[in-house]
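Pasting as-is:
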Amino acid sequence: MGKSLAVLVLFLTMFLDFDENSTTAIYHSFIVLCYLLPLVGAIISDSCLGKYGTILSLSILYSIGNVLMAISAIPFGSNRVLNIILASIAMGVIAFGTGGIKPCVSPFCGDQFTSKNVHLLPVFFSIFYFTINAGSLISTLLTPVLRGYVSCFGEDQCFPLAFGVPAILMIVSVGIFVLGTKWYVITKPKREAAMLFFKVPWSVGYAIYHRIKYGKIDNTRNFMDNASPKFSRKFVFDVWLLLRVLVMFLPVPMFWALFDQQGSRWTLQALRLNGSFGKFVILPDQVSSLNPIFLIIFIPIFETIIYPLFARCNIFKKPLQRMGTGMAIAGVAFLYAGFLDLYIQSQSGLLKNDEARIVITNGLNQQAHFSYPDANQTFSLDEAYSQKFGVDDLKTNDHNLTVTVGNSNMTFYLEVYEKHILQLFLTETDLITNDTIQWAPKGDKVNVRVFMGEVSTFSSADFSLCSSSDCSDDEMEYHVENITMNDISKPANISIKRYYYRIQTDNETIGTIIKELPKELRSGGIYTMTIVEDSDNGVSLQSGLANSPNSISIFMQVPMYVIITASEILFSITGLEFAYSQAPVSMKSLCTAAWLLTVAFGDMVVVIIAESSIFSNQAYEFFFFAAAIEISCIVFVIMSYFYKYVDPSTLLVSSDKDASNNLNESKNSKLVSDDEAKGETGTYTKQLDHCEDGKVSISPHCDPAPEGLDYESEL
């Protein structure tokens, strides 16, 4: 899910102005909510609406949430409070809709299978996952384009369109789902099934209480036998099967803690990379599309080549083997992410917390000399309108700057701020600035401002940056009117692309010129556009950099996505199959909901780490998660060694028999009292003693154990 929500991260940072840690915490809190609510959806499904009815009704609710999300992205003024409130409501509605649907979809699909074609389940889950990621691919490719290349409501980005189009598509998909109703196998809800969510923990608690109170009863094979006096033999047996699966879920959340960071930390890392690819620009929220792309490519390869090949060596034949390998590989992806982050930091020249930078543009037609007495540094700007980076290690306090032009000296008092760039423009009589610039533009943006130096042939000009050579009003992405000599415009963040500039002066002889910028503006760059006189055209433009743009290619993230995709195929697809096939028929929805809960717990870990700000360096946080998943993997592998598999076809056949026999058997069976269970009357012990080897000894009956299951093992 996280990979298709990268646009949400940019919405939080670029539109609602949250910082990176807060954005990460909000993003993963939303995912937590999406994966906590499946329990509610499962109860609704099993108690009243059924799987089909739940999917239909909550899909409508999900569509409404998407519409609200699109509305929340419409700017209602400079204050974003109303937008935050609407976005919070929309995210809550979406979470309830998507969360309620999740535990119903795969079981609903599984309901279309019988004992005759259950062997096709592994293939089905691969196809099921394939189609999900095909949709995710379309979303991750299209949504960033709608956001980044379309302007609306006076903004240079169009988040309403990015959220609105998926809302429309969701409404259409609901209609398509309804059209297929007559072909579905629709099972009616069993109200008693909803009670499982309360009855299962009650039975486990009773078994523990009974074991503590009376100790181990003779000939009991595991602690759930202690619940037999209160619950039917089939129910106790099903709970025992369920618990065996749930225990294997304990190390699983750490995988999701890593996997879901594709949409948060990995997207935020992509903001610091160069997305230029020839004439095209890959947006930060588009790079997450690599995951569904690789999934679509890798799934057939794994199913037709890798799994059969390794099966000959008796490798990857069992689901838990695949899942353990997937966990280990995920750690490698985060090791790579950590080292890449260190490399980005080494190339970006990031300022430390107590440092600032000063950049000077010479607006004169003669040489100027500068001296920082506090930093013990001097330099000269020989060319007119040339620019010089100041020292990077200026401590955050006050400084004096001495400027020498010809025979005159001027001393200026400068106030610098932490992690900010102070841009200065030298004129004949002053050193001017109107703002400081934060170190890096947010998101996939560049920062620009316009300065007009000393000119004599015109007194004012209008300046525009346009997306095409026509440079009409509709194509202006940045516009400054009536800028005069020694004026500096306010800085603005605009999108990454190749621009044309238009300068219209108040001199009719010079008129208007439209030219293409020599170079494409790249993310992370802070550009100063200086309007100067030109002997040929009367006016021209010089571009300077106050901060170098991102230099490391966004394609450096490709190996991360290759590795995490391989781990997803091994872990997530196999995990869906494992959870469905190993759970008893009566508790498949409950088991699926428990599987989804592991995602919520994993994202809770990310929220805690992000909000606590334990790591001052993002790379160290990546290394922490890499170590955590490897430790979890070791625990999972040890647990897997002792797990005994159940043949899913046996469970289905048993379910068919139980459906016709269980009611009568449960009515005719006499519940054994606690005193009898302890052995005081001898009844319970005697019933257990007569069970033969290979039988399931759950009082008051003996049943054959499902194929492949050794019931002798203690849970």
